[in-house]
Every structure is written in structure tokens, then in C-alpha cells.
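in:
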């Protein structure tokens, strides 16, 4: 029977540890503030923003919320980002993605001060990760590493296959697994013999953006599978990129959707905010 990796439980452990670090900072007179900017009212984005606010409240840090209309221009958004960059009371700036089509995401990300880029998307932070230097790490890949480590799953020496090559998950995930001494293969939509490659994995991490795409045919007996996907099926229930029921009997450990990777993303965002305050101290 597969071990179910409980992201909800592990994320609460992390947030409780952060609560103690925040309390210590407060005793030293240091407040922490996260500024969250949302442009438009995309329902999924609104849910994420609410969850981020709740997490801030839970660990004891302040959150500033900027809910801007869909018609906000790129210049207006950049003006707000620059204002927050220069505000010494703000430790972290998060611009909720996706942005409306008339705003260039790369330009916005590049205008966030790297020291306040708690999402870990700025090219300076991505570059630091690629050469093994300190910087903020994308929250979802960082969360996956914590899930594996805190579940007692060894990474070193294991064969890892990452399905997906996005800048937000796939690429940083591969770099982090390399940092943990795994042997890493990245697969994507143009990969030939995808199933054969995936089947080599001791640890299979799926961030491909296709509902229930990975079936038991992709999975080696006894593999650990991590599902980064999030979709709603025809019954409006949340599901992932992995067909959970199909692969369950074949794997040694699996993350559920919901309750797997999702809560970890927010926990690691909180971690980056606290680190930002500790570094500025």
C-alpha cells in the first residue's frame, strides 16, 4: 500500500516553526510585511491570494493587499511595484500570476527587487539557484524538496524524472534535485519515448499541466510520485496531472490532490518572507 505524503500536515509543521522565528524577530522589534498584488479577479487567483493572507495571519506577519482592476496598465502596476521596492517596511513583494494579456509578466518580475522577490522568479534569483548560490527559490519546487525530506524519502543517488520544463516549476525543480545529488532527466511535450523515460524514475515529479495524464504505464513499480498539477474534473472536483487511483497500487509513495504540493507552496512562500526579514536584520 502506498504511503500518502501529507502536504497539509507537513506545511503546518513548517508554519509552526516559522511562527517561532517570527516571534523571535518581533521580540527584537522587527516586523515582517508581505505585499500581494492581484490584477483582475481570476477566481483561482483570488483563492490563492486569500490562502496567502490566512498563512500570513497564522505565522504572525503583516500582509498588504492590492486588488487592482483588470484595466490596470503596465505602467500603473510597475509604479506600484517600484513604490513597494523602496518601502523599507515591506520585506516581500508578490505579483499574482497570471496577469492580464496586456501586461508583460517578464517585465513586471524583473522590476521586483531581487531581495524582495519572495516568489523566486527574478532572473537574479534563478541564476543564483543555477550556480548554487544563495537566493530565493521558487516556492513549489522548494516545497517538493521539503515534502520528500520530511517524509524520509532519500534523494541522493536516485534517478529523478521531471515531467515539465516551465520556469516556475520544471526547471528549478530539476536544479534542486541536482543540488540534492539525484540524477535528473527533464521531459516535455517533444520528448520521444516519454513513457519509457518516465518508467526509469525512482522519483517522478509531474508538472505537465494535463489532467490525469500520467497513468500506471508511466510508473516504475515502487516509485515515489509527486503531483504538481491542479485541475477541476467534470464533477468539479480537484485532481492532478497523475491519475491517482490508477497509479496508487504501483507506487511506494504519492502526493494527493488536493492536500499534497499545494499547501507546501504557500508554506515556502512564508519561509521566503521570514528569510527576507532575517537577512535585512
Amino acid at each position: 500500500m502506498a504511503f500518502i505524503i501529507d502536504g497539509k500536515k507537513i506545511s503546518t509543521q513548517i508554519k509552526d516553526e516559522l511562527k517561532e522565528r517570527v516571534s523571535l524577530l518581533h521580540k527584537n522589534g522587527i516586523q515582517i510585511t508581505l505585499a500581494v498584488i492581484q490584477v483582475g479577479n481570476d477566481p483561482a487567483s483570488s483563492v490563492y491570494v486569500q490562502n496567502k493572507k490566512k498563512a500570513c495571519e497564522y505565522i504572525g506577519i503583516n500582509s498588504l493587499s492590492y486588488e487592482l482592476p483588470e484595466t490596470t496598465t503596465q505602467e500603473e502596476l510597475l509604479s506600484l511595484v517600484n513604490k513597494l521596492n523602496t518601502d523599507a517596511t515591506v520585506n516581500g513583494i508578490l505579483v499574482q500570476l497570471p496577469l492580464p494579456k496586456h501586461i508583460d509578466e517578464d517585465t513586471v518580475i524583473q522590476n521586483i527587487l531581487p531581495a524582495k522577490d519572495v516568489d523566486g522568479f527574478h532572473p537574479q534569483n534563478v541564476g543564483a539557484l543555477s550556480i548554487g548560490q544563495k537566493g530565493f527559490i521558487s516556492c513549489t519546487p522548494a516545497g517538493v524538496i521539503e515534502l520528500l525530506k520530511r517524509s524520509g524519502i532519500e534523494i541522493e543517488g536516485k534517478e529523478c524524472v521531471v515531467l515539465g520544463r516551465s520556469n516556475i516549476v520544471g526547471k528549478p525543480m530539476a536544479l534542486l534535485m541536482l543540488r540534492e545529488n539525484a540524477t535528473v532527466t527533464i521531459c516535455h511535450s517533444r520528448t520521444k519515448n516519454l513513457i519509457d523515460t518516465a518508467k526509469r524514475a525512482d522519483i517522478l515529479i509531474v508538472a505537465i499541466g494535463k489532467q490525469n495524464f500520467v497513468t500506471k504505464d508511466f510508473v516504475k513499480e515502487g516509485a515515489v510520485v509527486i503531483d504538481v498539477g491542479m485541475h477541476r474534473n467534470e464533477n468539479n472536483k480537484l485532481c492532478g496531472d497523475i491519475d491517482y487511483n490508477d497509479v496508487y497500487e504501483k507506487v511506494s509513495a504519492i502526493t494527493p490532490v488536493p492536500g499534497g504540493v499545494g499547501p507546501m507552496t504557500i508554506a515556502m512562500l512564508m519561509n521566503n518572507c521570514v528569510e527576507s526579514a532575517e537577512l535585512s536584520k
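note: The first helix runs from residue 7 to 27.
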